[in-house]
Model the fold of this input.
Amino acid sequence: MELKYPLIALNFKTYLEAIGENSLKLARIAEEVSKEYDVGVMVAPPLLDLGRVVKEVEIPVFAQHVDPYKPGSHTGSIIAEDVKAVGAAGSIVNHSERRLRLADIGMILERLRENGLISLLCTDTVQTTRAGTALGPDALAIEPPELIGTGIPVSKAKPEVVVGAVEAVKRINPSVHILCGAGISAGDDVAKAIELGTEGVLLASAYVKAKDPKRVLSDMAEAALKAWERR
Ligand code: G3P
Done:
C-alpha cells in the first residue's frame, strides 16, 4: 500500500477517545473523508487496536512505534514482522513521545524496509531533520515538541522551522515526503502547511478530541486539496 498526497496523517496516540471501539469509529470516519474528498488520510491507532482497525478500513493504517529488533527473545516488544503480519502499512518512528537514539532509528528504518513497510520518521528541529533525511525514510514529519497538543499550529507559529525542514529534505534527499505537525487544528493550518512546501500534516488532538471529528477532518481535507491545486 502506498501513501497518497496531500496526506493528512492522524496519530490517535493513547487518548481515551481513541481506545478500543473508539479507535474503529475514528478510523471509519477517516476512511469516509478520504473517499469523499479523494485525499490521502492515514491513521495510527493505539498499538493494541492496530490489528482490528486494519481489518475495518481500506486506508493505510500505521503502528505508532516499532522496536529495532529482529524476531526472537524480546518480551513486550513490537517488531516489524508483527506490524506486517496484522496488515498494517507502516510505522511512525521516533515520535517526540517515543524518542529514539540515532542508531536505533537507522535500524528501525532498515527493519521496516526489509518487511516492505512504510516509514514516517518524526524530527523535532531542522538539524535533526537533516540527520533523519540522510537515513532515507519514506516520509518525514517535523514537529516542534513545545507546540504538540497546544492547538497552536506549527505552520503559523513557526513557519521558519517548516520551511527549513522542507529545504533540508529537498537538498539532501528529495524522494523523502515531507509533512509537518504540532498544534494543527483547522483547515487553514493545513493549507498554510502546504503553502510552506509540505505535502501534508501529522496531527492528533484536534481530530481525536473533536466533538465532531468528521467536520474537522472534512474541513482539513477540503483546505488541503485547494492548497495542493494552488501550488
Ligand atoms: O503525532 C502528532 C502530534 O504529535 C501532534 O499532536 O495534538 O498537536 O496534533 P497535536
Q: What stands out?
A: The longest helix spans residues 213-230. DSSP finds ten helices and eight strands in the chain. The pocket of SN-glycerol-3-phosphate is lined by residues 11, 95-96, 143, 148-149, 181-184, 202-206 (CB under 6 Å). The beta strands are 7-11, 40-44, 62-63, 90-93, 118-123, 139-142, 177-181, 200-203.
